[in-house]
């Protein structure tokens, strides 16, 4: 956990999303840093190193960040999804009408 709680801002994020129930970010980061003070730290025996590497590779992919951006900004509610789909259909119909009027000339 000390890798996730580097700054009090990280603790604020965990408290805001109700992952951890302590009310003060300073106390939260202090608690986790004091718990790990006497622990032996070694990078070679970290159990989740493969998971962490896979997660970092996943986050670096531009396709995944574009997909997440699209979901968060355009498909976050059903009404937003319906309006995006309606706009795409409207553009397709407009393009079809333009092509048909050009062919008719």
Automatic annotation (TrEMBL):
Q: Which InterPro entries match?
A: DUF247_pln
Keywords in alphabetical order: Membrane, Transmembrane, Transmembrane helix
| Membrane-spanning residues | 79-104
Q: What is this protein called?
A: Uncharacterized protein
Q: Which organism is it from?
A: Citrus x changshan-huyou
């Amino acid at each position: 956990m000390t890798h996730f709680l580097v700054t009090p801002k990280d603790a604020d994020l965990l408290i805001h999303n109700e992952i951890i129930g302590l009310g003060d970010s300073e106390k939260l980061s202090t608690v986790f840093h004091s718990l790990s003070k006497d622990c032996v730290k070694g990078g070679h025996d970290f159990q989740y190193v493969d998971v962490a590497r896979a997660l970092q590779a996943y986050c670096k992919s531009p396709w995944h960040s574009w997909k997440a951006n699209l979901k968060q900004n355009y498909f976050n509610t059903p009404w937003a999804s319906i309006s995006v789909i309606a706009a795409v259909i409207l553009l397709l119909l407009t393009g079809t009408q333009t092509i048909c009027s050009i062919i008719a000339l």
